[in-house]
Amino acid sequence: MDFTPWPPPPYTVTHSTHLSPQQFQQCRALALACDLFYNTGRSMAYFLPLCRASQLSAVEFLDHFGRWLVEQHNERECNAAIYSPEQVFAMQQSFIEALFHQQQVENVIPIALDLIRFHTRWADTLLGYETLACQQVIVDKVALLEQCWCLAPTLRVEIFNYDVDEIGMLADVDLVEFVELSEQSGSTGLFLRRGEEVYCESIDDVFATLLLQSDGATTPTQIMAPFLSALTVEDCADLVHFAVSEGLLVPPVIS
């Protein structure tokens, strides 16, 4: 085969007798799309369901993603290593919204995004640090309500359109059929690792609010004030005690 490389080393083939420069560019774009969406994006668990929902083969799906990257001006670097998993996570969601609108399957977008978020957060948690329980014995639970806390940096809290317990059980599923049979109930998932095990727990609105609004400057009493008509002070103290004991809330770092 007659290749024409760039003159200075390291050599880059730009075209040959069998492939035009445009075809070589298409090959590079497809390789980048595969590396980004599948490898860096860690999409093994949801790649095929997304392909089926969009009525595209795997190659067609990646080709669409490569073309979308060009439109978004993200194809300028052919090295997927320059993109972080979090950047690719954002790309995947934006691309799926655009693709499913184009393919006229907009009703599948919420569960498709849920699948991406669930498996991304699961992988992040697995590869991240373990969440350790508090070793200190807590005597006065009520006093915890007036202290400021922060969400442990090892945790992931994600909001979903569908029930997170259902999402966690979805494997090689037909997303179109799932949407027809399920309702968008909304849920919040808490991801943590203990030892080598990853756990995803569905948490209610009160507990989710406590965790997400614990910013190191706001007390649990202030955070849970809107819920006091339904909760007693003891109920609130029990929630905070549980969160602190399990290492979900930690003292703010003093710089």
Please characterize this protein's 3D structure.
This protein has ten helices and seven strands. The protein has 255 residues and is of the alpha+beta class. It folds into two domains: 1-104, no CATH class; 130-255, Outer Surface Protein A, domain 3. Helix 4 (85-102) packs antiparallel against helix 5. The chain is elongated, with a radius of gyration of 23 Å. The N and C termini lie far apart (63 Å). The mean pLDDT is 89.
**Architecture of the largest domain, CATH level 2?**
Alpha-Beta Complex
Q: Which regions are unreliable across 5 or more consecutive residues at pLDDT < 50?
A: none
Structural class: alpha+beta
Oligomer: single chain
Helix content: 40-55%
Which strands sit side by side, in order, in the main sheet?
Answer: 4-5-6
- CATH fold-level label of the largest domain: Outer Surface Protein A, domain 3
**Rg over CA atoms:** 23 Å
H-E order: EEHHHHHEEHHEEHHHE
The total number of structural domains is 2
Gross morphology is elongated
- Terminal CA distance reads 63 Å
Question: How many DSSP H or I helices?
Answer: 10
CATH class of the largest domain: Alpha Beta
* Biggest beta sheet summary: 3 strands, antiparallel
Overall average residue pLDDT: 89
Total strand count, please? 7
What percentage of amino acids are in beta strands?
A: 5-15%
